[in-house]
Amino acid sequence: MSFNSPSPGRPPARYLDQLSAALERARLFNGEGLAAAARIVEHVIAEDGIVYVFGSGHSQLAALELSRRAGSIAALQVVFDPAWGLAEHVEGYGEALVADQPPGPRDCLIAISHSGNTATAIDIARRARATGTPVIAVTSVSASRRAEARHSSGMKLSQLADVVLDDGAAGADPGIVVDGLDEMLGPTSTIVAAALMHQIVVQAVERLALRGVRAPVLRPNSMDGGRTHNERLRDRYRDRVRLVP
Fold first, then answer.
1. Residue 171: which pLDDT band, with cuts at 50, 70 and 90?
2. SS3 for 115?
3. Fewer Cβ atoms within 10 Å of its own Cβ: the N or the C terminal residue of the chain?
4. Residue among 3, 17, 26, 36 at smallest CA distance from 167
5. Distance between the two ends of the chain, CA-based, in angstroms?
6. Which domains does the chain have, with CATH numbers?
7. Interval 80-127: pLDDT, tens
């Protein structure tokens, strides 16, 4: 049996088609929001601040996508949840995650929550706002509108954000129906969230370059001088950016 045998017409790729459509929606829905978010990150980098990123559960994968990788920035701190979302609806847990290293006024926070009602994301966003830290939310606008507010404050993540970016996924996120199954397949929100954040970084670094400011962009370790360059950047932020698993 050959898995590479050609088939007539366009081969089925339902998930890739859905993902492509979700990315296109994200591009169309978030033009102004991406520009505003990029201006925030531009300012943070120019002022030698740190971009904090938090996502609970599967959203933590999107946060980690930007961490310590070529083409991203060294001035980035993932607020890591070792419980991987098991306590995401326990109020106060988010506060504990940033208790000994909270973002400050020259930093910013990107908080990711598809539903927009995750207690940990709301706690961290509330803490950020209390310290004058700009907040960028990555969420599903439609899902957040329908979701019941679970936090005792009555707030959802979008209500705490200076900029709201829409991941374009509706409902609980998966969108592919398979005959004979009650469950749907093919979630897109995590990949779209990561793409939106990479776009923010690209736009921010481009804006800085136009000003003659060199952003702390990490290089591939495999390129000549890449490892030395990256180690120099990590030394620069060693006292302010912690390594996460």
1. low
2. coil
3. N
4. 26
5. 40
6. 16-235 (3.40.50.10490)
7. 999 999 999 999 999 999 999 999 999 999 999 988 899 999 999 999
- Tokens in use for 73? 């920035």
- 221: left (phi > 0), else alpha (psi -120 to 50), else beta? alpha
CB atoms within 10 A of CB 209: 12
Q: How many angstroms separate the CA atoms of 38 and 245, rounded?
A: 27
H helical segments located in the chain: 14-29, 31-46, 59-65, 93-97, 119-130, 141-146, 189-210, 226-236
**Tokens representing residue 100 in the block:** 């000994």
Q: Which amino acid is at 136?
A: I
3-state helix, strand, coil in the chain (%, to 5): 40, 10, 50
Q: Dihedral through CA 121, CA 137, CA 190, CA 148, nearest 10? A: 60
